Amino acid sequence: KKASCVLLTAYPQRMTKRRLEAEVSEKELSDIAQACQPFIVEPAGYVVAWSGVLTLRFAGFPPALVCLKATLEESFRGLPSENPGSRWPKSTLAALRDGQRLDPSQLGTLTSLCAEACARLQKQALQLHVNHLSAVLYECRSLERRLLTARLALQESARDESPPAPEQVECSKKVEKETLEEGYWLQASRDGNRETHYRCCANGSTLVWDFGREQSKQCQILA
After folding, report:
1. What number is the average pLDDT over the span 159-180?
2. Paired residues of 58 in beta bridges
3. Disulfide-capable partner of 203 in 10, 40, 47, 90 (CB 3.0 to 4.6 Å)?
4. CA dihedral 167, 173, 178, 180 (to 10 degrees)
């Protein structure tokens, strides 16, 4: 089963040595997903993150997703610690080309555009329904090149429409607040995370919601 390598290792050439373990892990991950209720995520706005990366920010991890993340950490103890950038829900939209750096004026322009787009987005009050996730074995961090995408259905039950807990909402808002602080240009102009970082060869695996591939009208608005 090709899907097995998604859950065990980023390098398919190693899969044959650990096929049995991989098949067990595949079932474990599928079981974890099916134990999670479908849920709702709410797009909250756009920000210029560190290194000038344009990002779609969501309102916060809903309770069902917080529980899923905790279960994954408990079930797969070998996972690396989360980076700060994955502790708030987001989708990376664009990065600077190699050798480029935002100057203060450019950052101001982008921040203003983000504010305008955020106002339009909030008027739409989108609530996106998540019924499945995707385990992805990728060849680059942007996920534009993939070795495998395995769709994992969530629980066949009523959707959990609970909003994110206050601390989750605050975690997401804190990111936006930082981008509006005086002197944030120092973070927005940092080295790293340019185009090559996302598009160069870098094998790995991740669990995502592929909203850009969804056919619903609401998802297409964002995609």
Report:
1. 94
2. 43
3. 10
4. -160
